[in-house]
Amino acid sequence: MIKLLKYDLRRNANLLFGVMAVLILAELALIFWTTLALQLRIGLGIFFFGLAGAVLTINNMKVFDYNIHSVSRRLLPVRSLSYVWSSLVYGLLNNLVVLLIGVGFGFYWYSQDNSELWSGSGLSFYFWSMVSVEVIFSVLFAYLLLYMIIALARSITKKGVFWVGLLLYMVIAIAIDWIDRVLFDSNRGQPLFLVNIFRAQDGALPNTSTNSVLLTYGQIAFYLLLCIVFLFVIKWCVEKRIEAE
């Protein structure tokens, strides 16, 4: 797994450094663009971080797809699930770097405007800890779901993989959301991301953690079970493809 991770980092180093450099330059440009309203600069800054996250997520999917069907299997023979672990670590490392950059710029923007925009900062440490754990769990679940979609699509067809994968994602995501609603009376409307951090009250963010919408123990068990199922499906698809070749 470590060898595969190093291989992926070296192979994608230019893209990763490029995204981080562009993100930092864009944020610095917003800092010095003083003629633009502060709230608009903050909004654009958040947009740039979201865009960087989207690019890195797409890259992570491409890394996993590349590894399960091409050169890595011949150059770096590893166990089937090592493709999953290396891709997960690869994605989490990239997200961690973006998060650290975001924290740095976030402190700067907070120093410039500590108004109601940052009212969530008054919430308890326990609340933010629970939200952080759930966000990490949600990211891992999303990655595993997307890895399974890619593995299934590669197993089903050699052409039109994207469209087959998109159809599979829509069907599976809708099914998961429906089961969540039936079993746990959930009304999230978020089959990919499992966390709602805030519930608005009178158009403002709440001042206490009692309004957070966190996963119940039953839902945690349900999504953990799904993660195990995803791993078994990925393992079966990868081994099936290796045997076919």
Description of the molecule:
This protein is mainly alpha-helical. It is 74% helix and 0% strand. The protein contains eight helices and no strands. Helix 1 crosses helix 5 (82-112). It is globular, with a radius of gyration of 20 Å.
In short:
By secondary structure, the protein is mostly helical.
How would the blueprint of this fold be written?
Blueprint: H1 2-11, H2 13-32, H3 38-69, H4 71-75, H5 82-112, H6 125-156, H7 161-184, H8 217-244
Q: Provide the helix percentage.
A: over 70%
Describe the main β-sheet briefly: none
Summed over residues and divided by their number, the pLDDT gives a mean of 77
Low-confidence stretches: 189-213
What share of residues are in beta strands?
A: under 5%
User: Please, how many helices?
Assistant: 8
Shape: globular
Strand and helix order: HHHHHHHH
Q: Could you give the count of β-strands? A: 0
Report Rg.
Answer: 20 Å
Quickly give the structural class.
mainly alpha
Note the gap between the termini.
Answer: 22 Å
Question: Which properties best describe this structure?
Answer:
mainly alpha, 74% helix, 245 residues, 8 helices
